[in-house]
Amino acid sequence: MNTLKIVGPDFSTFVRSIEMICKVKSLPYSLQSQWQDEDVTLGSEGLLKLHPYGKVPVLIDGDFILPESNAIARYLDTLTGPSVFASDTKQAALIDAWSSMLSIYGYRDLISLYVLTLKFPANQDGTPCLEALEKGKQAAHSTLKILAEKYKSQSKKSTWFLGEQFTLVDAILLPMLDYIHGLNGDLNLLNQYPDLKRYYQAAFEYPHCAEVLSFNS
After folding, report:
1. Is the omega angle on the peptide bond into residue 28 within 30 degrees of 0, that is, cis?
2. Which of 54, 89, 166, 207 has the greatest CB tally within 10 Å of its CB?
3. pTM of the predicted structure, to 2 decimals
4. Phi, psi angles (nearest 5°) of residue 59
């Protein structure tokens, strides 16, 4: 089997999503910052040749180049190993719906508006803009509440977000929660959502999650 190439940095939540899928399906892969002797890091001209909007991840399988996480997951699911989707039509539709919502709204609220506001402060003294931080915190709480209510509606015996099976939804969500959990003190909003925190921590019992995420107690 060819070693798949994933273009993108290891700190990207979506790159980590694809890494987890590769690991659960025992697909060998490597992360790439160059392709055909050209720089394909974020912001590079080389990346624009692989993704028209310069986003990551991009999957390279031989001469096949595929952008966009959800499309990559669909492709990987055809190769080998356990599915990260579902054979049941309605469950498969729910996986698609939640994967899409998390990729757009979840990422916006948890990462773009909250985590990145903290990681890349706007003020010259290295502190975040308080107005932006408050806006980001409210956005993060809004999404975390939605996620907590959805997860609580599942079976209490369920490890994963939509039932007994690790799916694309988990692969997208867990790296985002990983960044929230990594924040210090009261900034770690996950502490205010005990069910979601248990869900996140339980994932570390599984190698395909533990080898990609960075949980520390």
Report:
1. no
2. 166
3. 0.95
4. -100, 135
